Each structure stands twice: as structure tokens, then as C-alpha cells.
Amino acid sequence: MRYLLAVAVPPASVCRLGCHTAPPIAIFWLAALTTLFLAPSWNVVWLSLAAFFWVAATTWAVLTLRSAEADTRNAPESNRRRSVRPDRQYPGEEEIPLKD
Fold it and tell me: Per-residue pLDDT for 47 more than 70?
């Protein structure tokens, strides 16, 4: 259901995930709608520009949804598993550079 919403209304599909990525997605989506409704003529250039903005918003929303699902499943491709804690700057104690 969320993926269908990501195609129709991309900002609404990611809003329940914390709304951090919803405003940039909304900018692309509103640019697509503005291009469709305020274009001086409906030729190929304006329609392809609107399609580009819509596809960009949809792609961003789908990638956000997949990343959130991977985080909740604790999947190997999750960003949460690949992140480094702020208190660890080096992968191991033996790799800390020596002070001269």
C-alpha cells in the first residue's frame, strides 16, 4: 500500500517515517504538479520535465521506504548495521595511529 502511495503522492508515503525526507520529496512532487498545470504548452519538453520531477520524487520515496523496512527487519543491507558509533573513530585498537 505504501508503494502505491509513493507513486501517487510521494511525500505522504514517507511522512509516517519521521517526516525528515518528506519536505525535499514534496518539493520535487510540487515542481512536477506546477510544471503540469502552469506549463505554457503541453509539448514534449514540458511533459518530460514534469515526468522527471515526478520520477525523482517517487524514486526518493521508494528508496526511503526500502531503507526504513531494512532497518526494522535488521537486514544486512540496513544502514543501521553499517553505521559506526560516534565514540569509535577507528575500526580496532591496533589501528590507532601512534603519536610521534
Answer: yes
